[in-house]
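Ticket 4471: requesting a sanity check on a complex prediction with D-MYO-inositol-1-phosphate. Repro inputs:
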Amino acid sequence: WVIWGQFSLPQGQVESCLPARIIRKALTEEKRVSTKTSAVDLVTETDHLVENLIISELRKRFPSHRFIAEEATASGAKCVLTPSPTWIIDPIDGTCNFVHRFPTVAVSIGFAVHQELEFGVIYHCTEERLYTGQRGRGAFCNGQQLRVSRETDLSKALVLTEIGPKRDPATLRLFLSNMERLLHAKAHGVRVIGSSTRCSPGPLAPRASGPADAYYQFGLHCWDLAAATVIIREAGGIVMDTSGGPLDLMSCRVVAAGTREMAMLIAQALQTIDYGRDDEN
Ligand code: IPD
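Returned C-alpha cells:
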C-alpha cells in the first residue's frame, strides 16, 4: 500500500508502520489527557503527535494538498471540504479506549478530490490489520479482498453503534431509545466498542472472521467516516444518511450495512439526534 508505505520503517512490513508503533507503545504508558467538546471527548499528546507526523509526511510529498484533521479542527482549523485534493485524518480513533488501555484503536486516513472520496486506509493498531479501499478497485484487509455481509433481515443481524460525545438527558434518551427500537425488532445484538472507524468496517469482513451486519451513529465526524466509507462501498456495502438519503460527509450521522435492505430497515427505525455539522463550526 503506497500511502501507508510513507509511514513504514525500512523493511516496509505492515506491523512496523510508525504511527501504529507510537500508539502501541503509548497505550501502556501514563498519558496527559485533556477534554474537547465535552467531558467525555478526550485528547492526548499522542493524538497530536501522530496527527502532526502524518500531516508532515504527506505534506512533504503533496505540498499543494489540503488537510482536514481531528486535532487541528479541535484547535480551530476550518473543516470545509473543497474540490482540492484533501486528506481527512483521524490520528487515533478510539481515544477514550486508548486512555483506558482498552485495545481497540485505529488510525484512519481518507482522501477526497472534487469532494468525492477516492481511497481510504484504516489501521487497527493492536491487531495489526490494515484495511484499504480505493474507488473502483475493491477493499482489502492485509491484502485479502473484503466482502460485506449479505444479511437483509434485521432479526438476524448484529448491529454496531457508538454513543457520541453528548451526555445531556435528552440526547441519552434518544440514544437508548434508538437501541431499544433495534432490540425490539429482534436484532441479535447491538454493540458499542468505542471506536467509530473500528465499527465502520464492521460489516466488511467475511462472516467467519466475526463481522457485524450494520453500523449506525449520530455524533461522529468526517474523519471517522471518510476512509471507512470508501472501504465499505468497495466491499459492496451501503453507506447512507440516517434519513435513508445520500451520505453527507459533514452531517455527523451515518448508517452503513452490507445490503440496502438492512440499511433502510435501520434508517427507518432511528430517531434523529442533532449534532449539527462539521463544516458549521
Ligand atoms: C470518537 C470515537 C467514539 C465515537 C465518536 C468518535 P475519537 O473518535 O470513535 O467512539 O463515539 O463519535 O468521534 O475522538 O476517539 O477519534
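Notes from triage: The longest strand covers residues 116-124. Leaving this open until the requester confirms.
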